[in-house]
Design brief:
- With 428 residues, the protein is of the alpha/beta class.
- It folds into 2 domains: 1-324, ANL, N-terminal domain (Rossmann fold), CATH 3.40.50.12780; 330-426, GMP Synthetase, Chain A, domain 3 (2-Layer Sandwich).
- The protein has 12 helices and 21 strands.
- It is globular.
- The termini are far apart.
């Protein structure tokens, strides 16, 4: 069932959000040390912020500020905190996000309507391949959302293909929640062990953490590899701990749908000005309905384009295109601006590349250098040249390449305390 607000026109959605704005600003002024200081420092009269356009009068919030003044963002006393969550710390120290009972209900609602967006019902049984521990929001969010949906859930966690296949055979789930690259490992295990993976109960996968779509919404190399092997439906999602919300694809596969009842979203350039529809901008969010640690104009660091035409599914919400990259992961290499996803897509399309990590560092003349450490079982003649030719053909430049044992690369991808695979290491 589509929430009523998401079937309304964009103008009606805007009006709804503007009705929520005064209460949010008043709450922040009263309960957030950080935002109370910000309003005072910039002489901001919050009663004059009435429209979404008025938000541009307010300074943006960055990850640096969250890390430097984490406790000053918290709006509730300790006795109201039910769950403690931290960000993954991909781009710096993890940030603590306290969740109240109300916040957990909001999180469950977000994931429930996100699963419904991805054509899920209470008849589904989800095989959950993400961790519920290690202070991770995502696994908890999915569990709460599936429970609210009324569907079944099997909490298997990540990795261990043998256990995943035992679960499929034993319980007959209908859907996965997984990092999409792990589906290739499941297929590889099935092929090596004579498992007829094409004839199982699985019909779809809700995919997290890795992009399945190119900028024109066609499948990436990774997405196409999965579909060529296994004819299941793939739904891409984009989410972050900071907004406690998700943008999930519907069956149309034309971008992740915005939930206007949960978050105000802007798309800003490097000067914090709005970009035009279809142009990449930094996803900037203002949370609605968050009690423990609401955020105002928080710049996520993620770049993507947005689209406003109504979707064939009946939703009229803004849709987010695939993430182009993260602002802090931009690479200037031999005069070319690159983002890691462009490198991943090429590597995923090269036969013989088992796994990889990308390292970026500053060379002796002070410019960016790229080293790709590739895991492969054997190194055919001219393999390095072939790989570099692929890069030159697509990106006009070729990074350094080093071949290593796949097991070594796998251990690098999964550090001891990591909650998800790490393939990009910024050593600049």
């Amino acid at each position: 069932m589509i929430p009523l607000i998401e079937t309304k026109s964009l103008q009606e959605q805007k009006k709804f959000q503007e009705q929520q704005l005064p209460a949010l600003l008043a709450y922040l002024e009263e309960h957030s040390i950080y935002y109370a200081d910000l309003f005072k420092k910039h002489s901001i009269d919050i009663t004059k912020i009435k429209t979404l356009e008025d938000l541009q009068q307010l300074p943006v919030t960055s990850k640096d500020e969250l890390q430097a003044r984490n406790n000053d963002f918290i709006c509730v006393p300790q006795n109201k905190i039910i769950d403690y969550i931290t960000t993954s710390g991909t781009l710096g120290d993890p940030v603590l996000f306290p969740m109240t009972d109300k916040d957990l209900d909001r999180l469950a609602y977000n994931e429930c309507i996100s699963f419904e967006c991805a054509d899920s019902t209470k008849e589904d049984v989800f095989q959950l391949m993400t961790t519920l521990d290690k202070r991770f929001m995502a696994g908890l969010a999915y569990f709460l959302g599936i429970r609210k949906l009324g569907a079944g859930v099997v909490r298997v966690g990540g990795g261990i293909p043998e256990l995943q296949w035992d679960t499929i055979n034993r319980i007959s789930p209908t859907a996965f929640v997984t990092v999409p690259s792990f589906l290739l490992k499941l297929i590889e295990y099935a092929e090596a062990n004579g498992i007829d993976y094409r004839n199982t109960s699985i019909t779809k996968a809700i995919c997290i953490g890795e992009s399945l779509r190119n900028q024109d919404f066609s499948l990436t190399t990774l997405g196409q590899k999965i579909r060529d092997k296994w004819d299941i439906k793939l739904y891409s999602t984009y989410a972050s701990t900071e907004m406690s919300a998700a943008f999930t694809e519907c069956a149309a596969g034309m971008g992740g749908h915005h939930h206007p009842e949960l978050v105000i979203v802007e798309f800003l350039d490097e000067n914090n000005q709005p970009v035009k529809e279809g142009e990449p901008g930094e996803v900037t969010i203002t949370t609605l309905g968050v009690e423990g640690m609401p955020l105002l104009r928080f710049k996520t660091g993620d770049l993507c384009s947005h689209y406003t035409e109504p979707c064939s599914c009946g939703r009229q919400t803004i849709r987010l295109g695939p993430i182009v990259g993260r602002t802090k992961q931009m690479i200037k290499y031999k005069g070319t601006t690159l983002y890691p996803p462009a490198l991943y897509d090429i590597l995923n399309n090269i036969e013989g590349v088992k796994n990889y990590v990308v390292e970026v560092y500053t060379n002796e003349i002070g410019t960016d250098e790229i080293l790709i450490r590739i895991g492969c079982e054997s190194v055919p003649e001219n393999f390095e040249k072939d790989i570099k030719d692929h890069f030159r053909a697509k990106l006009r430049v070729a990074p350094q390449v080093r071949f290593e044992d796949p097991d070594v690369i796998n251990k690098i991808q999964f550090p001891e305390l990591s909650r998800k695979p790490v393939v990009f290491f910024d050593k600049r």
